[in-house]
Amino acid sequence: MTTEPGRRRSRRTLLAVTAAALLLAGCGAGGSDGDTDGSGANDSGTDGGGTEGRQPVGTLTIEQARQRAQQHIDSAVEALPVTPELTLQRDDELECTDPDDNGPRGRYQVGRTYWLDKIPAERNAEIVDTLHGHWTSGDFRVLADERSADDRFVSVEHEGDAFRMSVQQSKDGSLSLGASSPCVWPDGRPPGGDG
Fold it and tell me: Between 181 and which of 65, 66, 79, 91 could a Cys-Cys bridge form, CB atoms 3.0 to 4.6 Å apart?
């Protein structure tokens, strides 16, 4: 039987692994749909903040990215057959210090991760399968599908806005659900840019 300190350590380890996976995955998200309305940003409101024609283009703001991450989480939770108690574990913004989306530095990635509490461990496989189905029937593409592993894990990316989501089971049977944005400019525009 896992003790409470052991459970906390497992959760901290899982949180660190999940956060790192989302961060590494998210900053690499190009997600560019292009500037379709002449505003410098695409219709989805984000393009990963990369370059288009070698000019930095607009993105969501950090606050908009935080709201979008929460919308993706809320949508995933609504799809579940049971209602978990959400315990916020991570709500942060980290600078994209080594972006591999050909975009400039100075952008940030927003991430949110929750523990899905009050779910019986025997329903974890059902919950993870439900999330996988919810995402694949929507506009997400699967990046990793390890539902059969002891530490179940699924990672996806939204085709429209390049947000990434994941669900993971810790060794003690706890489930976490996270969302992270692509790299965004703090105010939605490159510094010194008109737009």
Answer: 65
Query: Which residues, 6 or more positions from 56, have their beta carbon under 8 angstroms from its beta carbon?
Result: 49, 50, 103, 104, 185, 190, 193
| Residues β-bridged to residue 88 | 114
Main-chain phi, psi angles of 18, to 5 degrees:
-65, -45
C-alpha span between 103 and 49 (Å, rounded): 6
Residue 61 to residues 4, 116, 137, Cα–Cα distance (Å): 39, 27, 28
Instruction: Name residue, tokens 């903040």.
Output: 49
Cβ neighbours of 55 (radius 10 Å): 10
Tell how strand 153-158 and strand 164-169 pair up.
antiparallel
The residues, any chain, with a CB within 8 Å of residue 71's CB and separated by 6 or more, are none
Closest CA to 186 of 100, 55, 96: 96
List pLDDT tens digits, range 119-157.
999 999 999 999 999 999 999 999 999 999 888 999 999
How far is the C-alpha of 185 from the C-alpha of 59, rounded, in Å?
6
Q: pTM of this prediction?
A: 0.73
